[in-house]
Amino acid sequence: MKVSVHHLRVWGKPLIFLLSLVPALWLVYHWYLAYGGLPHDLGFNPNETSNRFTGDWAIRFLLLSLAVTPFATVLRSPKPLLFRRMLGLYALFYAGLHVLSYIWLDMAFDWPELWADVLKRTYITVGMLAILFLLPLGVTSTKGWIKRMGAKRWQKLHKLVYLIGLLACVHFIMMRKGFQVEPLIYAGIFAALMLARLRKRRGKVRA
Amino acid sequence: LKELGAKSSAFDPGEELTPYSAVTQYNNFYEFGTDKSDPYENAGSMQVDPWSVSVDGLVDRPGTYDLMDLIDFNALEERIYRLRCVEAWSMVIPWIGVPLSSVLNKIGVQSGAKYVRFETLNDRKQMPGVRWPVLDWPYVEGLRMDEAMNDLTLMAVGLYGKELPNQNGAPLRLVVPWKYGFKSIKSIVRISLTEKQPRTSWQKSAPQEYGFYSNVNPEVDHPRWSQARERRIGEFSRRKTLMFNGYGEWVADLYAGMDLAKYY
């Protein structure tokens, strides 16, 4: 059976939307349990768990959104592009939760301490820059903004996502102690997705 | 795990103990993986009986010691200590052990010995984490001789009235309560007395972040995060970190005249 664009719009999009929400719902539910003094799955250091969990999902959605275009190329179909904006917005959503987790649970909304921390610690500066750049992409993700900006300028702005991906990977590598594999796996996936774009571009030039 | 008899605790800070479940399931022991739950999940199969420790360097009686010959199990003491991890979380743990000084006296410290160097077991078959180059294995730690001889410095063989669980560094580990947790090396297989300051694993990994001394110090930040506060496991808000983790009364003299920002 062939999946039509209509099917994807009516069934695929709500399905992906709900699935993408599951990690956030899980986190909120377990915080609700923890706050009520009930058994929960946030481990012995729920704050650390929250920071890592939201950060993991932010970078996963970022990489997923970056994977959409190469995936469409491989399939020779534009259908995957239907999901690109949603995945990108979910990256922003989880990045927002990540920042909230840090500002609330780690810094307890102590703004002077927060500002000092952001400036003093390079990996936090790098992470904050990534979010700062991600924000305008989220705001301008609507059809109205594409029209207002014009497709060319809009596309140019949204190329920022490559820089954001790089910053996110650097942030992840920097926050771990010692030489750890997990952040390098994410960086490797990011590098592969970037290479796929370069190859496609070079192919175009040759053609 | 066998129960251990011990004299009651000296240096009790009078703070609430961290639950046994947290002490034994939230650990850093990178030889078994880098997640906090990895040691609990992976360390169970480590063979800790029999256990021998090689003793070498500037000692009167070098050789390979059985655990029983190195530690006097009739002289065990309970010590309730704060443990402050360099990652800015902390616990309060009732350890059981003997002063390190008693072990050093047993092996005989020669006059030229200025440092103690410790090594952790490095066994690929039993430790899945050493397949990854997270650190330069084996794990190495060290103390200056006067730090090693301090009353607070403990060679632990148990916690909460029982033998050490593997994930906590069975069967023999160091506990240095005024230093960040990573100084308290686990599952020790080698003790060497040296004239030169040993290079520790964390120093090799990131010298600008981890110094030889690594005393708990709220005023000297880790380059990547603040050390002014800590999260006591089980508490939601953070508390202020104490100088020397609250043990200054007994150890501040060791560092008189030293610039602790330079010798971090």
From TrEMBL, chain A:
The protein's GO terms of the molecular function aspect are: electron transfer activity; FMN binding; heme binding; metal ion binding; oxidoreductase activity, acting on diphenols and related substances as donors
Q: Which residues cross the membrane?
A: 12-32, 57-75, 87-105, 125-145, 157-175, 181-198
Subcellular localization, as worded in the UniProt entry: Cell membrane; Membrane
The protein's required cofactors: FMN; heme b
The signal peptide stretch is: none
Transport among the record's keywords?
Answer: yes
| Superkingdom, natural source | Bacteria
The UniProt entry's GO biological process terms, in alphabetical order, are: protein repair
- Membrane topology field: Multi-pass membrane protein
Keywords attached to this entry? Cell membrane, Electron transport, Flavoprotein, FMN, Heme, Iron, Membrane, Metal-binding, Transmembrane, Transmembrane helix, Transport
Recorded hits in InterPro entries, A to Z, give: Fe3_Rdtase_TM_dom, MsrQ-like
Q: How is the cofactor bound?
A: Binds 1 FMN per subunit.
Give residue ranges for domain Ferric oxidoreductase.
54-169
Q: Name one GO cellular component term.
A: plasma membrane
What does the annotation say about its assembly with partners? Heterodimer of a catalytic subunit (MsrP) and a heme-binding subunit (MsrQ).
HAMAP family from the xrefs?
Answer: MsrQ
The entry's function note states: Part of the MsrPQ system that repairs oxidized periplasmic proteins containing methionine sulfoxide residues (Met-O), using respiratory chain electrons. Thus protects these proteins from oxidative-stress damage caused by reactive species of oxygen and chlorine generated by the host defense mechanisms. MsrPQ is essential for the maintenance of envelope integrity under bleach stress, rescuing a wide series of structurally unrelated periplasmic proteins from methionine oxidation.
Alphabetized PANTHER family for the sequence = PROTEIN-METHIONINE-SULFOXIDE REDUCTASE HEME-BINDING SUBUNIT MSRQ (PTHR36964:SF1)
Protein family according to the UniProt entry = Belongs to the MsrQ family.
What name does the UniProt record give this protein? Protein-methionine-sulfoxide reductase heme-binding subunit MsrQ
Organism encoding this protein: Kordiimonas sediminis
